[in-house]
Amino acid sequence: MVTQEANRVAASAGLPRLRIAQVAPPLEAVPPGGYGGTERVIDELVHELERRGHEVTLFASGDSTATRRLIATVERALRPLGLVEEAAPYTLATLDAVLRRAGQFDLVHAHLEFAGLVLSRALAVPVVNTFHGRIDQPWARALFTDPPPGLVAISRDQAASQPAVAWEVVHNGLSLAGAPFGERPGEALCFVGRMAPEKGLADAVRIARAVGRPLRVASKAPSTPDEEAYYREVFLPEARRSDVELLGELGGPERDTLYAESFATLMPGDWPEPFGLVAIESLACGTPVVALRVGGLPEIVRDGVDGILGADLDELARRLPEVAALDRRAVRAAVLERFSPQRMVDGYEAVYAGCLGLRAVV
Questions:
Q1: What's the CATH fold of domain 4-173+340-356?
Q2: Residues 185, 261 contacting (CB under 8 angstroms)
Q3: Bridge partners of 246?
Q4: Which CATH architecture has domain 189-338?
Q5: pLDDT for 280-327, tens place per residue?
Q6: Around 50, how many Cα atoms within 13 Å sit in the side-chain half-sphere?
Q7: CA-to-CA dists, residue 287 to 109, 158, 218, 281, angstroms
Q8: pLDDT by residue (tens digit) across 167-187?
Q9: pTM of the full predicted structure?
Q10: Local structure of 59: helix, strand or coil
Q11: How far apart are CA 286 and CA 3, in angstroms?
């Protein structure tokens, strides 16, 4: 039921109450049981849009709980079932489910990466596509030929990789006010992320060894052959030479406790991270981030204020002791304001308004 207060919030943004379809990939539930970055953002988006009075229908796996208006595109999320490699037909089923019901909505907001472009070209209603992953691959340029309206990047760096596209940029936001805060962090460093080469876990082990600190790792089990090979052939040989504690995949509260207890969070991956949810989660616990100066991370981490940004691993290891002098309370306060769900949804409402020819006050 939409309350009078929710209608008032929607009206204050200059938008009428909209019927919005949010379309999630079938890999993780919304919200995810463990760590799923895209799905956590969608969960925040659904709740804040509903708080503002919009009617949101979620297309997602049947074990999703973000809203009562759920259209299940697969019975259960695929990644926990080990079906990541078989995701393509389920993505097609997701597209089919939206195509069949598109007339019920004022706007469709897809989070399906390049597959969402099918909806933009096929539907009469406006479609917004948020790209949460990489779009800088050589083959991607052809897919952005004659790009449709409503394309959203999650960082300025991500958008810059396809400069011919008229991108809207909306930074991700999470509800972080409840994150734990530790005045006196422990000695250990932490790493949170997938067991994948681009995330730089083996490099995090090398940095921790170089500075003489233990490393605690929160990572889900490898889910692809490439991840399994990386785990066996790259990570384990490094870990055996170092003080590494492998914690497995942690739920939200346990993951936040890990951040809060850590001296710093390492993000040494050298790929162009489109955004970096791990960074804002860590900063919300007051824990500085030590990362390479790549992708969207410089839009989150202010060098010398929120953490350390470096050009290479040697610089990160050399400068890591600087973390001790940073004001952890100021780190936390800044990120809560800069990357809130409210700011994210302000941005999306402005995008929606543009696609619908309406006016939004943000």
A1: Rossmann fold (3.40.50)
A2: yes
A3: 217
A4: 3-Layer(aba) Sandwich (3.40)
A5: 999 999 999 999 999 999 999 999 999 999 999 999 999 999 999 999
A6: 17
A7: 33, 25, 16, 9
A8: 999 999 999 999 999 778 899
A9: 0.89
A10: strand
A11: 36
